[in-house]
Amino acid sequence: MASVLDSSAVLALLQAEPGAAIVLAHLSDSVISSVNVAEIIRVLTRKGSAFKDARQALALLQLPVIPFDHEQALVAAEIGSAARHLSLGDCACVALAKSDPASEVLTADRIWAEIDLGIKVTLIR
């Protein structure tokens, strides 16, 4: 696994926001947590997309989805207790990245660069 995509990075790509080209360049060697899939679809439907359309848009990216397992849940909980301003989706993304020391996370969330999460963080904008 080379890149783990945060929800904000995938949303930037799906909505053609700044940073989308960076995400697109990493897409072929990226994965995403199943928690982030839920978060992305939730955001898209809150913004007016039908569930079916949001699901289809995400499916078109052909991202491997990594199930959120017990070990990741424990790591995410530990991260969340130390960095309380991160969402559950953020913590799940970091936990997935921590499972492979060679990975990096792509995110649009600038706060990630200010926190020592023990992973490589690449800001897309």
Would you mind describing this structure in some detail?
The chain has 125 residues and is of the alpha/beta class. The chain has one domain (3-123): Rossmann fold (3-Layer(aba) Sandwich), CATH 3.40.50.1010. The chain has six helices and five strands, in the order βααβααβααββ. The radius of gyration is 13 Å and the shape is globular. The model has no long low-confidence stretch (mean pLDDT 95).
CATH class: Alpha Beta
Structural class: alpha/beta
> What letter string, H or E per element, gives the SSE order?
EHHEHHEHHEE
The biggest beta sheet is recorded as: 5 strands, parallel
First CA to last CA: what distance?
Answer: 22 Å
**Overall pLDDT, averaged?**
95
- The count of DSSP E runs of length 2 or more, i.e. the number of strands, is 5
Shape: globular
DSSP summary: helix tally:
6
Arrangement of strands in the largest sheet? 3-2-1-4-5
* Helix percent band: 40-55%
Q: CATH superfamily, called what?
A: 5'-nuclease
